[in-house]
Design brief:
globular, 13 strands, Diaminopimelate Epimerase, Chain A, domain 1, 12 helices, inorganic pyrophosphatase (n-terminal core), 7-stranded mixed sheet, 2 domains, alpha/beta
Length: 350
């Protein structure tokens, strides 16, 4: 981090309303990094409001907010109160990244761990810290360390949870910085609270989502593609993608979810030469948008564009991703993980 520039940001925000904005539908890493940044501002005598758009995950996010008393406000609650001169700080996202709503305030700073969006040069950020690490919480933890500010037990626990969740327990996209920040935070964190957060799991009704994904999965070489034909939370789509990646045959997983506003994609890759963010961006080019990390990424196709996919939507999407990966597009090469007999695969078979 640039300590002098961070001090400049702090002084600029004095006597101004400051909004810390996460990406839409914030996950534990977004929530944790926003909470940590708010605590840093508090250390310097500044108040900040955490804002998001979309729905909060009903399990992991809700549990974090309840356990640590984290105050976050939906865009609908604060949009009418935001003025042009208010300071907007994007965290775990960037403007024009495709996963964050635009506010009418003054975009003065961005702190993110995703690949830099081309539009960042358009915004005259007073402070910009965009670095490729496994979790945005690692960047905020580094701020505490380098500024020599001891994090509270709750702050350390929230940041540590965000790091563990976004790196999939240090098995995905992890960097040296993430490891170092785990070591730094561990002595301050509340181990009991951390364990409680990590047993959030899924609820019974989520099992039908896994069942649908299993019934609709197809494998093309090392690529596994599945779809969920009904709405479900973004976090659950991501969990299903991680589940599919656990299959021995799969090195790249694509899961998409059908919902009223279109299709939501979650993409995973453990194949070194396949960047998940590049893949989903290229596959959805012209019909949607997408991006993210080399190991995990997401994308969307809006409902008004679905007619362009034609009557065989599943085939269209499969072909797009296969083409980008150079996998031969032959129907007779497609094979399912499901039995080839006429027997049905029911949730009781899990």
């Amino acid at each position: 981090m640039d300590i002098l520039q961070f001090y400049t940001l702090i002084e600029y925000c004095r006597n101004k309303r400051t909004i810390i904005q996460t990406h839409n539908i914030p996950d534990p890493d977004a929530i944790g990094s926003a909470y940590g940044l708010k605590k840093l501002f508090k250390h310097y005598g500044l108040n900040a409001t955490i804002c998001y758009d979309g729905d909060l995950d009903r399990i992991s996010a809700a549990k974090m907010l309840d356990m640590f008393g984290i105050e976050m406000y939906s865009l609908s609650e604060v949009s009418d109160m935001i003025d042009e001169d208010d300071c907007i700080i994007c965290i775990d996202t960037q403007k024009k990244a495709g996963n964050v709503s635009d506010l009418k305030g003054n975009d003065i700073a961005v702190i993110d761990h995703h690949p830099e969006v081309d539009y960042t040069h358009v915004y005259k950020y007073l402070y910009k810290d965009i670095r490729r690490v496994g979790a945005c919480c690692s960047l905020i933890a580094q701020y505490f360390k380098e500024l020599e500010i001891e994090p509270s037990s709750d702050t350390a626990t929230v940041l540590l949870h965000g790091i563990k969740m976004d790196t999939l327990q240090f098995s995905r996209g992890v960097t040296k910085t993430d490891i170092e920040m785990f070591d730094y935070l561990y002595d301050y964190a509340d181990e009991d609270k951390l364990k409680s957060l990590e047993v959030s799991g899924i609820i019974f009704n989520d099992l039908k989502t896994y069942s649908a994904a299993i019934n609709n999965i197809h494998v093309f070489d090392y690529l596994g593609i599945s779809y969920i034909p009904f709405p479900c939370p973004d976090s659950l789509v991501s969990m299903v993608a991680d589940f599919i990646m656990s299959l021995k045959e799969i090195q790249v997983a694509v899961v998409y979810n059908v919902r009223p506003d279109g299709l939501k994609f979650s993409v995973r890759s453990e194949k070194r030469e396949v960047d998940a963010g590049v893949l989903v961006s290229a596959a959805l080019s012209g019909i949607g948008s997408g991006g993210g990390h080399a190991a995990m990424a997401g994308g969307r196709i809006k409902s008004e564009r679905l007619s362009e996919l034609g009557p065989f939507r599943e085939h269209f999407i499969n072909d797009r991703f296969m083409k980008m990966l150079g996998i031969q597009n032959k129907r007779n090469q497609r094979h399912s993980l499901l039995p080839t007999t006429n027997t049905t695969f029911d949730i009781k078979d899990l």
